[in-house]
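Predict the 3D structure for this chain.
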Amino acid sequence: MRVPPSRWRRYADAAVRSPARKGNDDPVAAGRIREALEPARDTASRQCQIARRRRTDLRLVFPALLVWGTAGAGNWLPPAGLAGLCTALAAAAGIMLFLPGRVNLGRSGIRPARKRRARIGRGGAGLGPSAGRAAPRSLRATVAVALLLSLAAAAHAAVEASQRHDGAIAEAVAAGAAVVAELEIAGAPRRLRIPGAGGLADRWAVPVKLTAMTFGGHRVAGDARLVVMGGASWGDAVPGQHLRATGKLRPAAPGQPEAGLLAATSAPTLLRGPGPWQQGPGELRRAFTAAAARFGGDAGGLLPGMVTGDTSALDAELEAAMKTVGMTHLTAVSGANCSLILGTLLLTARTLRLPRTAAAGASLAGLALFVLMVGPDPSVLRASLMGSIGLASVAFGRAGRGLSLLCVAVIGLLVAQPVLATSFGFLLSVLATLGIVVTGRRIMDWLPPSVPRWAAAGVAVPLSAQLFCAPAIVLLQPQFGAYALPANMAAAALVAPVTLLGTAGAALLPAVPAAAGLLMAPAAVFAGAVAGVARLFAALPGAVLPWPEGAFGVATMGLFSATVLAAAWLALHPAAVVRGVLAAHARVVAVLDGRSQAAARSAARQTFSRGLDHRSGRGTLRVRKPTSGRNHEWLLPRPNGPGPRRRTPPPGAT
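Done. Predicted structure below.
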């Protein structure tokens, strides 16, 4: 297939042909013009090739880390400390933006900015040696932007910290008061497997927002986040409901974003139901859980968790097995689910020959409907955003752009919700996406061309995510799942049918229950297979091994992940490994030969530097004494040489 000429080629050809159109038919002149344009054309071609190789853009990494650190400090510092932090950030940003005396450090010293700009202008379009000398100025602007974004995150954290530490709610929490609270459910209830101090075997943790409370005969209105610890009656709470309950307030753990904990002493009383946008997804999730229960066994409890994130019917032993082999992310709506939904919609749209813009819009609209179906919780929204970034990086090969999008998402989420800085779920989501963005595409390229792309993605995505999340998981539970990676790789091929068929069945369940049942049946079979994989690997000997805690455990796990990644590269590049081994062997042999030759020369010099040395062609014998530095020479007899002959006695003489 013939490659169409580039824009520069067309421009150069037009420039070469233009004199002929004006009546200049001299081929020599045309040849001279072509020769003059050839170096510039080669330079432009090389620049285009360099531009095609998209490098990883690291400019947003520092702002993202700085915003994350500032938001994390906002969850620990008191309001006074946050005020000082905001002042320091504002002062630093002002210094970076309005620092007088703009100078630039180049190779030849300090140059004024005006001369530097003039030199760049003469260089032409920023090309040449002076093109890279604007780096200090760009670095200063990057640092200033990072400081301003951190200031916004610190200011938001200061407002939330003032609500946690000041006012009547903070005083009631510190005093451990018994209150009558009016609450709004802010998230899905989560079952706690460990019995509480009161002996309740069935306990639930429910994130709520406190709107008003009554204690000591006074009613206080407020806006603070709490976590309710209650019995089985709290497991039916739906996000968006307004409830009234009694309980006792307790302080939250240091660094937690909640203002406190509410140990409920009564069942909740419904004040107002959720809105239509929240009531519909809740009813759909309950209907899907009830429809999946008829399949029984592990599939009946795991299918709702893998599709809608509802783990209320999940068996305790199966949950423990999935935790052992590192498969708990499958029981919640994660970035993997969102990536599958978005990728399927995008592939379908492109198959229908929709334009790229229309296909992207339709896919994002379908993802929004999926998020609305499972419930627009903050964790679901975060998972959809991270899944979209990971899919874009793997599908389009834009690792550098994917990292920039990830940094933008991290900055936006932390500025909007600084409490995410201390959330383990947010940390694992970012690390998994970072692994997919940085190494997912590379691992796919390492595999042989005979491996299908879907199979390569099924191996690369869980491997990269697991390697990056392992050091953080050690902080949460200091243990090592020996079979976590093979278990996730074995289940990767089963997750897609469960997610896609189950989601389609959930969407059809209100309108066409029979068709939904036909789709849910194979999804339940695959869900049972996922449960079987978890139980199989969890029952193997050495499934859970102890691991060091703290920073040492994180460092060792990070080193282990890097070793696994290097081993994977070595295993998938045998030819490169052989070439490297042979080159290293040749290098070692050359070094050893050089050292042996040098040793031989040194020994020879030491041998001939002492004793007698006969110089051929001359009748002398040299004695070398390195200690004195003198050379003594004695004459040797030459039988055939000139000179007096030695007298011999005559015959018969005595």
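The two ends are 113 Å apart (CA to CA).
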